[in-house]
């Protein structure tokens, strides 16, 4: 099964990232992690035909590249050092680069294959979507709001970020303020935006609030419909009959003379902001727009229009990371046996690649600690 193969691939990558692949670009690994996660999300809701075999073959090739790289380095190192004493040399950069080139090539091939498969699946489903004009372009009006109503969980290390962001949102500046938030995948950008969005002070400060998730694949019309669905009175459902140009005008008129807050979450392309920018009025009412992105170039490009305002997420320190891991494993009661704390702290991320590795295998990490915990209690 393709889904099981992807889980196996996640574990293989996470075991390789920390110690052996430090030269591989973070952006490439993050993009790979996103493609795996995105494909898993799709597979949870859809059955595959011939694509199942394609995915499993792509996974096999990439796993082989990861698994062969580390043994190759270890074997070569051993052969060099354990050979003639006169030939005891460390593993050279050229040897390392040889294995890394293969991995990078296979990562890019895997990403390309996944995109092609998703395109095939998307095209095959277009006819079904076109048969239902009322749900045109697959827009879910409630999708953006559902996750905002979840029970608030404990967050760690974001207190300063929340205070800073709240100050920018409620400050004295009357003009429209654009606030880009940048950070790698999983570091807490969306959590920060959601927490500030739902803060009672922010709720009472703005007359109109909107939260939409964008993602790497989007259509302007979908975004406009989803924004208007949160602004218009419940039961108003005329937007699906409007053209893209009419929706832009409609949105502008709805926001006119209002103090509004719009959160555009997970932006991968600055073009989406360029398309929305002209329809968002600046009536000197203190309106604010938050944009989150995992791509620094996108965030920097947008920040150039906002007077260089730019919020970069920091990594959690060791104590914050421990509290987060402990809460996820043992619940917010933090009933962690004292003898497990040392083992747990050894699993904390200490760099960007460590963080990515923990994100890739976090369910496995939690299960392992839970198993250790259950054994320790017996």
From TrEMBL:
Family statement: Belongs to the disease resistance NB-LRR family.
Domain NB-ARC: 164-332
Protein name: Disease resistance protein RPP13
Lineage of the organism: Eukaryota, Viridiplantae, Streptophyta, Embryophyta, Tracheophyta
Classification via SUPFAM superfamilies: P-loop containing nucleoside triphosphate hydrolases
Keyword Ribosomal protein: no
GO biological process terms held by the UniProt record: defense response
Residues spanning the membrane: none
